[in-house]
Every structure is written in structure tokens, then in C-alpha cells.
Design goal:
The complex is a heterodimer. Chain A is mainly α. Chain A is built from 4 helices and no strands. In chain A, helix 2 packs antiparallel against helix 4 and helix 3 runs antiparallel to helix 4. The chains are: A mainly alpha, B mainly alpha.
């Protein structure tokens, strides 16, 4: 029983592990935002200003989630 | 008036530890953490303790007020240099953000609010890269929280004023008869998403960006200093290059976060003023 507990235990900074997991989704999200934005820019270069605005907006929304992941370990107290 | 702090008093202002170059102290004694954001008070003005962040906020506000006063005090038809810069900044928010989201007619009375928000947030962010200060004021949660609270109260009260009580409820829940059977679920989700999550993410987006950015820059700076002790100058040099890269990235992020904060504030106000379907 105690060997199993030792095997499954996560010691050290679980906050860092939490952030690592939290960064998966936004990483994909930011890639989608800028990828589609670049494609739209290639199809219609005269809409550059509009596309860039929406790209920045989408990036900020995605990044917010990743950054909440950085901040949460500090909220719950750092050992 | 001893306040309970989350860190011990000897950990504030970490550069005051007596760990000097080539002393060989461990990284854990100097590594950045929550304590990098707590400052000892430097002055006591009539019972109110002033610390570094309050001083920076005050200086930033004075700078903004001075700039706009000097730019628009005696406006001329052919603008001088300061007036041109002031007009460019004002116009950027007015045409680029407020007219795009709220529209020309309704948006005009919200332009001063948005301009003040943008420049206040941007200058508070900029303190992160200005030498001698090097601390982003908006990484103290109180500042973004206060600003987001002001925006929240503005658009919620606008919704009630424009649509009345029932109309405001429909606005908050995104009531749309054509949705049919998913309506209860969508109304619940929209209600919580609009009324509870919006102010939280609005504030935390700005706060977390500045918090993380400051931690990154401090981490690389302390690491390059620390590695001079141990491993050698090549690694310290690489870490210092990363500090420079992070500072450049921070410059970009500061402007973007101020822009996004104001864009979202305008968008929420537009949602409040929107005609019901």
C-alpha cells in the first residue's frame, strides 16, 4: 500500500505541473487564431487592418486562460 | 497597525538580502516569487503608508494629466508637436476602438472614459520597463480589479437604464426565442458568463499578463546574476539575452493588454446599449 502511494505521489511544485497542463489548450488556441488569420490575410490583403484587430482580440482571449494558469499556484499559496 | 502579510518581513525587496556576487548562496534565497510583489513602505503621509507602487501610480497619473493638459490647453488649428501627439492618441481610441464597437452617435460620450482607461493602463504597465522603477503597477491585483469594477458598474447600470428590469434580464441571458429547447441551458450559461465571469476575466487578464511578465523578467535577471557565481559567464550571458528578449516582448504585451482592456470595455458597453432582437 505504501509502495503504491510512493509510486503515485507527486512531490515538489504541483503548481508548475498545473500550469503545464493549463498551457495546452491556449497553445492550440493561439495557433488556430493566428493560423486562420494568416490564411484570411493571404486571401484578402486589403482587409489587413480588420484581420489584425480580430487576431489581437482572439489572442488576448486565449492568452488569458493560460495566464490564469500561471497565477493560480500563487493564489493557493506557495510552499 | 501590523498587517498580516503572506510573506515574512525579511523577504520583501529581495535585493536587500546580504547575498553578494560570488558569495555562493543558493538560488532559493534570491529566486523571485510572491515576495517580489510586496514592498515595505517608504514614507508615511498623515497616517497613510506610501510604498513604491503607490508612488509609481501617483507619478504616472501626474504624467498623464500633465501631458494631456499641455497638449490641449491652447489648441490651435495648425497643431504644434505636443498637440499633434495628443490628437493622435485620442483619435486612435476614438476612431479605432469606440467608433468601431459602439458606433459614431452613441459612442461619443464614452470616448473620454476609454481614452483615460487606455492611457492610465498603458502608463501603469510601462513602469515595468522604466529604469529605477521596473515594477508594473497593474500587477497589483487592486488596480485592474478597480478598473474592471468601474467598467462593470457602468455597463450593468446602462443595461438597466436602457432596457428596464425585464429587458435587462433578457439582455444578460441572451434571450432568443428561436433557440427553442436549448433556451434554459443557454440562458443559465449566458447569465453566469456575462454577470460573473466577465468582470473576473476582464481584470485577471490584465493582472496575470503583467504579473507573469514581471516574474519572467525578474527570473532571467536574477538567473544571469546568479549564474555568474556558479557556472560561468557564457550561461549568464545567454540568460541576460533572454532578459532583453523578454523586455522587448513585454513592451509589446503592455500595449496590447491596454488595447484589449479598452476594446472589451467598449464591447461590453455596446452590448448594454444594443437593441433587443
Amino acid at each position: 500500500m505504501s509502495a503504491l502511494q510512493n509510486l503515485a505521489a507527486v512531490s515538489g511544485s504541483i503548481g508548475s505541473v498545473g500550469y503545464g497542463l493549463a498551457a495546452i489548450g491556449p497553445g492550440i488556441g493561439v495557433g488556430i487564431v493566428f493560423g486562420n488569420g494568416t490564411q484570411a490575410l493571404a486571401r484578402q490583403p486589403e482587409a489587413a487592418g480588420l484581420i489584425r484587430q480580430n487576431q489581437i482580440l482572439g489572442f488576448a482571449f486565449c492568452e488569458a486562460l493560460a495566464l490564469i494558469g500561471i497565477v493560480m499556484p500563487f493564489v493557493y499559496g506557495v510552499k | 497597525m501590523q498587517k498580516e502579510l503572506a510573506v515574512s518581513a525579511d523577504q520583501m525587496l529581495a535585493f536587500e538580502t546580504d547575498c553578494h556576487l560570488f558569495d555562493g548562496c543558493g538560488f532559493s534565497t534570491v529566486s523571485p516569487g510572491l515576495h517580489s510583489f510586496v514592498f515595505k513602505p517608504i514614507a508615511n503621509v498623515g497616517g497613510v503608508e506610501i510604498n513604491k507602487t503607490m508612488l509609481l501610480a501617483l507619478l504616472g497619473t501626474v504624467a498623464i494629466v500633465w501631458f494631456f493638459w499641455a497638449a490641449f490647453n491652447k489648441p490651435k488649428i495648425v497643431p504644434g508637436k505636443l498637440q499633434m501627439i495628443g490628437e493622435a492618441g485620442y483619435d486612435f481610441i476614438r476612431r479605432g476602438i469606440v467608433y468601431e464597437t459602439i458606433g459614431k452617435k452613441e459612442g461619443e460620450k464614452y470616448v473620454p472614459f476609454m481614452v483615460s482607461l487606455f492611457f492610465f493602463i498603458w502608463v501603469m504597465n510601462l513602469w515595468s520597463v522604466i529604469p529605477l522603477a521596473q515594477f508594473p503597477v497593474t500587477s497589483i491585483i487592486a488596480y485592474p480589479m478597480g478598473l474592471a469594477a468601474i467598467v462593470y458598474i457602468t455597463w450593468v447600470s446602462l443595461t438597466f437604464k436602457r432596457h428596464g428590469f425585464v429587458g435587462a434580464f433578457k439582455n444578460f441571458t441572451g434571450y432568443d426565442k428561436s433557440l427553442g429547447p436549448v433556451l434554459p441551458m443557454s440562458m443559465t450559461i449566458e447569465f453566469f458568463s456575462n454577470l460573473l465571469v466577465r468582470p473576473f476575466t476582464h481584470a485577471v487578464r490584465l493582472f496575470a499578463n503583467m504579473f507573469a511578465g514581471h516574474l519572467l523578467i525578474v527570473m532571467f535577471t536574477v538567473a544571469s546574476w546568479y549564474m555568474l557565481n556558479g557556472i560561468g559567464i557564457a550561461y549568464a550571458g545567454v540568460s541576460f539575452l533572454m532578459t532583453i528578449a523578454m523586455t522587448a516582448f513585454e513592451l509589446f504585451i503592455q500595449a496590447v493588454q491596454a488595447y484589449v482592456f479598452v476594446l472589451l470595455a467598449s464591447s461590453y458597453i455596446q452590448g448594454a446599449l444594443a437593441e433587443s432582437h
